[in-house]
């Protein structure tokens, strides 16, 4: 085992499931100490039983859109570990998938506050810790953040993912003096709970006239979606010193969907 993250400390939001959970396992395997933050406390508890090296795993239940709770969780984890090197800003929701006229102000709050405000707040609270020694921040955006992906009904989600991308690029510029790198990953379809919990079929059949090519046929590779661990390989690369000269960039991991 390479143990290339030995003595590194990482915080992961949305860490109890899907891409975050898979990345936690990868970071732990590479020798890191990992602090997980998730709004789902039960899933965090259950995770400990399913994970190796859990002596190096701490977790806190917090909502990334709640400033006070999130700050307490981040500061508490960093205090416990002693320092911070890596932040994986990953918590997110698809939100309500529906035609624009059916979306509500509440839908706006839920999607934008989880995905974008959560990214801003997490960045705000990890930066003071990362400034000590420099570090790497990886933000989970989406192919939806930069192009229409055939997901009619995902206007709020796409806007939140585009906001993450613009924010991350400005952060990369601003934080470069502190040797803090910031990069965005843009997954296509990944097989996680977020997809199971979203009612695309309802939209396709009953609400949206324009054919939606999702999930079938949208990705030249792996039409049925990527495995979370394929995404964590990329997160690991961007989080580690292997990518020491890469900042402010967006990396697509979408089975080639952006070619279509
Ligand atoms: P997932 O549902 O398995 O994981 C998301 C995690 O975020 C869950 O553990 C959930 O409890 C947590 N979370 C949700 N709201 C939160 C909040 N307010 N505070 C703290 N935690 C919260 O789904 P995933 O696919 O692993 O999603 C991870 C990221 O990947 C998201 O940002 C998502 O938008 C993005 N993404 C996913 C796909 C895909 O196809 N699965 C594609 C592109 C981007």
Protein model, in words:
This protein is α/β, with parallel strands linked by helices and about 260 residues long. The protein has a single domain, classed as NAD(P)-binding Rossmann-like Domain (Rossmann fold). About 40% of the residues lie in helices and about 15% in strands. It has eight helices and seven strands, in the order βαβαβαβαβαβαααβ. It has helices at about 20-30, 40-50, 65-80, 105-130, 155-175, 195, 200-205, 230-240; strands spanning about 10-15, 35-40, 55-60, 85-90, 135-140, 180-185, 250-255. A seven-stranded parallel sheet has the order 3-2-1-4-5-6-7, with helices on both faces. The protein is globular, with a radius of gyration of 18 Å. The protein starts with 8 loop residues before the first strand and ends in a 7-residue tail after the last strand. Mean pLDDT is about 90; it is low at about 200-215. The structure holds nicotinamide-adenine-dinucleotide. Nicotinamide-adenine-dinucleotide binds near residues 19 and 140. Nicotinamide-adenine-dinucleotide (NAD) binds near residues 38, 43, 63, 140 and 195. InterPro entries: NAD(P)-bd_dom_sf, SDR_fam. Belongs to the short-chain dehydrogenases/reductases (SDR) family. It holds the Pfam family adh_short_C2. GO terms for molecular function: oxidoreductase activity. Keywords: Oxidoreductase.
Put the structure in a nutshell:
Belongs to the short-chain dehydrogenases/reductases (SDR) family. By secondary structure, this protein is an alpha/beta fold.
């Amino acid at each position: 085992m390479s143990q290339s993250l030995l003595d590194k400390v990482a915080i992961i939001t949305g860490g109890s499931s899907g891409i975050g959970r898979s990345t936690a396992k990868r970071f732990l395997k590479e020798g890191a100490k990992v602090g997980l933050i998730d709004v789902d406390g039960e899933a965090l508890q259950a995770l400990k039983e399913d994970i190796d090296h859990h002596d190096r795993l701490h977790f806190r239940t917090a909502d990334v859109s709640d400033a006070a709770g999130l700050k307490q969780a981040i500061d508490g984890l960093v205090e416990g570990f002693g320092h911070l090197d890596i932040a994986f800003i990953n918590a997110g929701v698809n939100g309500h998938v529906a035609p624009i006229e059916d979306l509500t102000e509440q839908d706006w709050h839920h999607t934008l506050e989880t995905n974008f405000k959560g990214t801003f707040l997490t960045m705000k609270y990890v930066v003071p810790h990362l400034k000590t020694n420099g570090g790497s921040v990886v933000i989970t955006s989406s192919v939806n953040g930069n192009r229409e992906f055939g997901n009619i009904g995902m206007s709020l989600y796409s806007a939140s993912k585009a906001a993450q991308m613009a924010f991350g690029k400005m952060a990369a510029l601003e934080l470069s003096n502190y040797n803090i790198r910031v990069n965005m990953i843009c997954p296509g379809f990944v097989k996680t709970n977020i997809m199971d919990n979203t009612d695309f079929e309802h939209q396709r059949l009953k609400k949206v006239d324009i054919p939606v090519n999702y999930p079938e046929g949208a990705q030249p590779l792996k039409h049925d979606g990527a495995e979370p661990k394929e995404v964590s390989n990329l997160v690991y690369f961007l989080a580690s010193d292997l990518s020491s000269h890469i900042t402010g960039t967006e990396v697509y991991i979408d089975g080639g969907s952006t070619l279509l």
